[in-house]
UniProtKB/TrEMBL annotation, chains A, B, C, D:
It comes from Yoonia sediminilitoris. GO terms for biological process: amino acid metabolic process. It holds the Pfam family Beta_elim_lyase. Gene3D superfamilies: Aspartate Aminotransferase, domain 1, Type I PLP-dependent aspartate aminotransferase-like (Major domain). The keyword Signal does not apply. This is L-threonine aldolase. Residues 3-291 form the Aromatic amino acid beta-eliminating lyase/threonine aldolase domain. Its cofactor is pyridoxal 5'-phosphate. Belongs to the threonine aldolase family. GO terms for molecular function: lyase activity. Keywords: Pyridoxal phosphate. Homotetramer.
Amino acid sequence: MFFASDNAGPAHPKVMEALIDANNGYALGYGADPIMDEVRAQIRDLFEAPKAAVYLVINGTSANSILLGTMAQPWETIFCADVSHIAEDECNAPEFYSQAKLTLVPTEHAKMAPDALHAKITAEETRGVHGPQRGPVSLTQVTERGTLYSLDEIEELTEVARDFGLKTHLDGARFANALVALDCTPAEMSWKAGIDTVSFGGTKNGALGVEACVIFDPDLAWEFELRRKRGGHLLSKHRYLSAQMQAYLTDGLWLDMARSANARCDQLAEGLRGHNSVELLFEPQANMIYFQMPRSEHQRMLDSGAVYYVTSGDPASGDPDEMLTGRLVTDWAMTPQGVTQFLDLLRG
Amino acid sequence: MFFASDNAGPAHPKVMEALIDANNGYALGYGADPIMDEVRAQIRDLFEAPKAAVYLVINGTSANSILLGTMAQPWETIFCADVSHIAEDECNAPEFYSQAKLTLVPTEHAKMAPDALHAKITAEETRGVHGPQRGPVSLTQVTERGTLYSLDEIEELTEVARDFGLKTHLDGARFANALVALDCTPAEMSWKAGIDTVSFGGTKNGALGVEACVIFDPDLAWEFELRRKRGGHLLSKHRYLSAQMQAYLTDGLWLDMARSANARCDQLAEGLRGHNSVELLFEPQANMIYFQMPRSEHQRMLDSGAVYYVTSGDPASGDPDEMLTGRLVTDWAMTPQGVTQFLDLLRG
Amino acid sequence: MFFASDNAGPAHPKVMEALIDANNGYALGYGADPIMDEVRAQIRDLFEAPKAAVYLVINGTSANSILLGTMAQPWETIFCADVSHIAEDECNAPEFYSQAKLTLVPTEHAKMAPDALHAKITAEETRGVHGPQRGPVSLTQVTERGTLYSLDEIEELTEVARDFGLKTHLDGARFANALVALDCTPAEMSWKAGIDTVSFGGTKNGALGVEACVIFDPDLAWEFELRRKRGGHLLSKHRYLSAQMQAYLTDGLWLDMARSANARCDQLAEGLRGHNSVELLFEPQANMIYFQMPRSEHQRMLDSGAVYYVTSGDPASGDPDEMLTGRLVTDWAMTPQGVTQFLDLLRG
Amino acid sequence: MFFASDNAGPAHPKVMEALIDANNGYALGYGADPIMDEVRAQIRDLFEAPKAAVYLVINGTSANSILLGTMAQPWETIFCADVSHIAEDECNAPEFYSQAKLTLVPTEHAKMAPDALHAKITAEETRGVHGPQRGPVSLTQVTERGTLYSLDEIEELTEVARDFGLKTHLDGARFANALVALDCTPAEMSWKAGIDTVSFGGTKNGALGVEACVIFDPDLAWEFELRRKRGGHLLSKHRYLSAQMQAYLTDGLWLDMARSANARCDQLAEGLRGHNSVELLFEPQANMIYFQMPRSEHQRMLDSGAVYYVTSGDPASGDPDEMLTGRLVTDWAMTPQGVTQFLDLLRG
């Protein structure tokens, strides 16, 4: 009953095996390992992007920050959802790497609407050299509240950006969960929908810690490499990153894991919907649920061994009937039985 | 015959086993895993520093940069050896994290002499607000040319720093190799010799990728944590860092590996000394050798499958008799037979 | 009829005379000129703050940015009004100098309410190392829409900040206009109301280009000096800054000029209120008016030689009846006749 | 007898008059004043560079730093003389604006030799993404020790840079003094000799505080403008910068002032050469002299009212016979009688 985060579960055994296989003899470091050549080919193939630049880093914060640093200038502002990870959860890392600022676009269901994005971009318009200049647009898919942009919605947003000559970034820490939910291809959810760069997550979906940075315009590749090194994010024993990503992508393991995580989320949502005192705050479309429940119920669940975050108040003190928000995240390693156990416990 | 770098060899099997053991069930992320509690205790114990702040990061560049960022102000200059890794091999990462600049102290045998350090610090003296202000001093042990500071030499340097009220950092990417060569304790090679913070390397000595940052003054801990996060260097699935370091330190594995690497280096140096056309440039005191040899000999070795860097010219073109510099690095996984094979080949 | 900005008019003749008087013989540079000693004493006296650190810079952007850089850490967020100059008009300079980010607090009448500030500060609360940390609060007086915080309102805001242990900055580019409007003392509008640092404007009120940075806690003085120099804002021939400020403050010239500018604004507002097609958007309390008027009327005024900004659309094209926003700013050099001329023209 | 610096003297009366003339009525700010149009034309004309981008800032530190920020990338290193102002006297401002680092090239007579520059550029060669990348080359003319590069020497250095594809910057804080000494044209001392950007000083030669940034490639113009604004260096009442530069350039005033300053320096050097206990350290070629003299003599001069810097020790305490270094700088406002007075005093 550990629903605190999809970074709390174990890595998939096949990923571990790949790591052990890679731990054999001597190999050049810093991305010159032969496994990385295979990974690059795998990702270009998956994304139907034979010229894409592909790099690996250890986590989502560095993937987002180095990509945005490569895309934005210090005098620009990056447009993103008001609840985005880059705005709320990265301790100014995107600003550190890009020296740019962020303009927060208001959201519904954690999603920017094209009109809202257009309005914010337009508002940065009339000040010449005085105001921040318009920079790239960053979308998050799966969103921070577990909802999804449809392919059409992504395209509408990237069209707004393109109308202003702006580049677009996709924070895909949960790329796989979104992909299987939308039942589309990586190309459809990225460059075919107008996306220029992708943080392609592995960590939250069964890896130990690896994300790919996919840059469809290879002209940005060298700058990315220098920014990665300057940020301390180029690994010497790079093969251990490569091996993780290789196993992750082989034989559709990444998709299987995402499907499993999403299925557990569906099961959980179904169970929650049947519960009187629970209200779902957003339609769970991938592997994350935000819900409300009385404080006393949260406290009872936590006391019984369920692990998850209550995000809007202290479950341990206050009016027992007050509705508090909780977040449940599922991952590949969860079993139907585990979810059932949680739901049974909830029913009391 | 892979002597290119000590980051080219495999991780130790015990480190891999620890990783697999750690990959079990759910654990809180971001350093709150229980293994990290053990690692912290291990390192405090090793360093006889019960209050030290201890953090793990993925590599030496980030360890050095985040530590120096925590120690230096943007208007200061960091004093370091002219051949130091932070000056030459980190693509401005220390400057990125600290916003400070570096003042290069001339070296002999890759080591700063107290007088030279004193002279450079003094030279930044008389300009008030106009010049860079004096910042921390960073030492590298093992140095970038394979030599060592004796404990007395470290103490003399830190005394110079302390006379000016400056803090000191030890870049210990090869801390273990130095320690076994000097046959001293971690405390003796750090705080007892006046060092304030240590980049304590694991990556080059049998780990996949982990370094500890040891900060003897815990008042700097929170700032370090914020700088680590802001740099994208706080791992969500942190237990995989913890597990590496735990295995590394358990039962003296780290010392055994360093002894083995150093022994291979001794064997190699002994063999090279007996060779007519070879000249050692520095006294190899740990696991790295810089030597000179005619271009034609380098080329013959490389053609025969030896892998190492020729650092002062192209071995493939030019006067065959010109002496070129080569670098050989040994690691824990090398066998006496491997070294013998190299030396036999060299003898022709 | 030049109402575009209070930086468009001339400097006061007494300021020019002081400049000429200062241009005599040789003087030490970089703030060591004897006039600066007098200015420091003048400002400490005015603010009843005998220990305050006092520095001069050339403009409001540098005053705000260097002060905020001195007050905020790179991992923090600075709380400010959503329409503040530091957010909208300084091309990321505050972020450049502080490396921090800005959190925009929603406003009414361009003013933050204590509740709104409290809510934003609280919202940055629960993420530990992951989110931006709480940094200083910056207020603007006169606000960017020509309204004023009462002394009580300032105090309520600084109390909110103080409850969270946060420092406060006052962007006083129009400090004088606010002071005479509120009929209070500089101390009352600053440290007595809980303000820690002040950007004390001169440029918009009759100087050529000078602002004082007033820091009530002298412990921050040396860091400010280093940040000023590092930003390129320490003038060698500093006496020309000192002389401006000296004349500005002597015999209440600064207050006389502010009173005159405010009186012209009152006259203008009075006239606008009597005009059918004009609507004032905010209560003009100092020397700036935001108003709405049909596009055709704006265009007629601009064609007739009035100079001011239409901020919400192109006056030259579109529905002639659409209401567009205009901004009128008065300064010390305007005559009652000039205002009457504008109002007569408006009446048609 | 004030020889401390050429920023210690007064501005020329014609510059002051221009300031007063400019202080008339209303003008658009931020460089849109009509005087700036004239200044731009003047400078393009002077430099025979009809497309050059021309901007004004308040001092040399900001001119150098914003230009280098526009030319260098954060992962690069800027090559400059080891005694250059950007390295020693700007408190890390060039690093702040560029995020790059500096590589110090050893000098003779304060000048980089082409070989020395070539060697330093070459040394940054072989590390791929690991080392700093090669960035622009910055020359100082007049050098920091009062010597001059000949036109041929400048051209040789820029050729070295060009061979590596690197851009070049000229720190011309004393551009005028160099120009009249070399008796050449601004074009010859800049783009015709391979220079890409110039910090064109006015402050040290009779202005209150103004430098022009001249960028021969107008493609860099917009980035410069954004960097200037973001650094807080775009003046609102810009006409007061424009007016200074306009008067400075009109009727060759700037050249007359430089000739006068240089003539006083020649007179001073001639007198010093005739003095037994004085040794000139460099050949004074413009308006600055470094010389050695016994401590007791320095102290006697300072006691008698001479004002200048003793740069190598405390004149007030120590061996009276020890030779200490002094620096004498002349400016436009000095009279032959003033110099004679100093020399008479020296003769005792």
